[in-house]
Amino acid sequence: MTTDISTQIAPLHPLEPLTPTEITTAVALVKTTRSLSELVRFVIVTLQEPPKEIVLAHGPGKPIERRAFIILLDKSSQK
């Protein structure tokens, strides 16, 4: 699952890890857009790396779309 996230602070580089704010935003977005049971856990929330072309074209202060890659575990089904 990937989730679009945006922050008010542009990262210095497109491959920087997600900030705590970006992680919180991604988790909140998934929780509000999906009907998850109380047994669903967020196993991984990390940066989905952008295509190489975007990384190479990035310049200082230039905004970039960031996406979170998320793995969930439903403890009721172990999936």
Strand fraction:
25-35%
Low-confidence stretches: none
Number of strands: 3
Give the SSE string: EHEHE
* Termini Cα gap: 14 Å
Biggest sheet details? 3 strands, antiparallel
Shape from CA axes? Answer: elongated
Adjacency order of strands in the biggest sheet: 1-3-2
Q: What fraction, in percent, of the residue positions are helical?
A: 25-40%
Mean pLDDT: 86
Question: Helices and strands in order, then pairings?
Answer:
Elements: E1 2-5, H1 20-33, E2 40-48, H2 52-57, E3 66-74
Antiparallel strand pairs: 1-3, 2-3
Textual characterization of the structure:
The chain is of the alpha+beta class and 79 residues long. Helices cover 25% and strands 28% of the residues. The chain is built from two helices and three strands, in the order E-H-E-H-E. The chain has helices spanning 20-33, 52-57, and strands spanning 2-5, 40-48, 66-74. It has a three-stranded antiparallel β-sheet with strand order 1-3-2. The longest helix has 14 residues, at 20-33. 9% of the residues are buried.
